[in-house]
Amino acid sequence: MASDQTLASRITRDALISVFLYSLPILALLLWCQLTGETPWNDGPPKDISHALPAAFQFAEPVFRNFKSWGLPVFILLLGVAEFALGLYDNKWTKNEKTLDLVCFFAPKLLIPPTIAFFSLQILPYLLPDYKGVFAWVPFWCGLFIIAVADDLTQYWYHRLHHQVPFMWRFHRTHHSAPYMGMAMASRQNFIYTIFFSQTYLTATLTYLGLGLPALFVTVIKSLITTTAHSSIPWDKPFYKYRVLHPVAWVLERLISTPATHHAHHADSNDDGIGHYKGNFGNMFFIWDVIFGTGIITRQYPASFGIKFYKEEEWYAQFLWPIFKSKKEGSELAADGPEVGDAIDVAPQPELARA
C-alpha cells in the first residue's frame, strides 16, 4: 500500500511538472507575439504555413517528405543489412523471433495509416468542424517546439506508464522480449499498444489544426533518433572515446536517446549498474528522464537484453495479446499466467551517472 502511494505521489508530482512543460511552447509563442507586436490571428484567413517556412529549411522540405514516405524503410533495411553483415544478432534471430519482428514491422504499416486517415478526414472534421488550419499562422520554429514537446512528452508518459502499471506492461512487453537490439526489433510492439499510441492521434490533430509542416520535420527527425537508438551499431561510442568530443557527448546524451542510454532500457537486468529497464523511458528526447529523475547515463552497454522470465511465447500471442493467449506454461501472456510484469520501482532513482 505504501509503495502504491509513493508511486501515485511521484506520478502526480511529475504530471504537474509536465503541465508546465506542455505550456512552454505556448508561453514562447505569446512572448513572440508580445515582442513583435504581431497578431496574425486578426489578419484575415489563416495563411498556409508553408509560406512561413524559413528559407534555410525550404530546400529540405522535399527531402523530409521523401524520407517519410519511402526513405525511412530503405534506411532501416540498409541499417539492418549492415547489422547482419557485422554479425550483431549473434544467431538469436530464431524463426519465432523473425516472424514476430516481420509481422510487427509490416502489419501496422498496412493497417494504421488507413486508421489515421479516417481519424484525420472523418472524425476530426466532425469533432472540430470550424478549426481546420486555425493555427496555420504559427511561426515554423514555434510549430516545431509545439509538436516536439506535445508528441514526445506524451510518448514518454505512454511508455513510462506501460512499465509502471502491471496490466499495461503486458501490452508493451513484446518490445522488451527480444534478446537482441537492432533494426529487426525496433518496431516490435503489441498491436494494441501501437494502435492506441496516443501521440499519433495528437500529432494528427495538430496537423489538422494547421501544424502539418512542423509535424513532418519532427516526425522525420524523431524517426532517425529512435531508429538509431535501437540499432546494435553503437554510433555514439566515438563521442565517449575522444576527449575533444566529451563536451558534445555530455549535451547529446542528456538531450536525445542514444544507443548507450536506450540499450540500458532494454537490458535484462538492473543489477550490473548499466541496465536500467525501470527508467530511461525517453524516445526522441532523453531530457524528460533527466527532468523526472528516471534516467541514468553510464556510457556503457548492457551485456544482454530482453526479459529474464521470457518464455519465447508464440509470435501471435505477443502480437495480439489478449485476443490470443500464449500456451507456454508460466507465461504472463497465458490465460492463467501470473501477473509478474515489470516490477514497479518506487525507490529513489539513482542520480545521472557519467563514466
UniProtKB/TrEMBL annotation:
Its main location: membrane. The chain crosses the membrane at residues 15-37, 70-89, 110-128, 134-153, 191-217. It comes from the Bacteria. The keyword Transmembrane helix applies. GO terms for molecular function: oxidoreductase activity. Its EC number is 1.-.-.-. Residues 145-294 form the Fatty acid hydroxylase domain. It is found in: Membrane. Residues 333-355 are annotated as: Disordered. Keywords: Membrane, Oxidoreductase, Transmembrane, Transmembrane helix. Pfam families: FA_hydroxylase. This is Sterol desaturase family protein. It comes from Spirosoma soli.
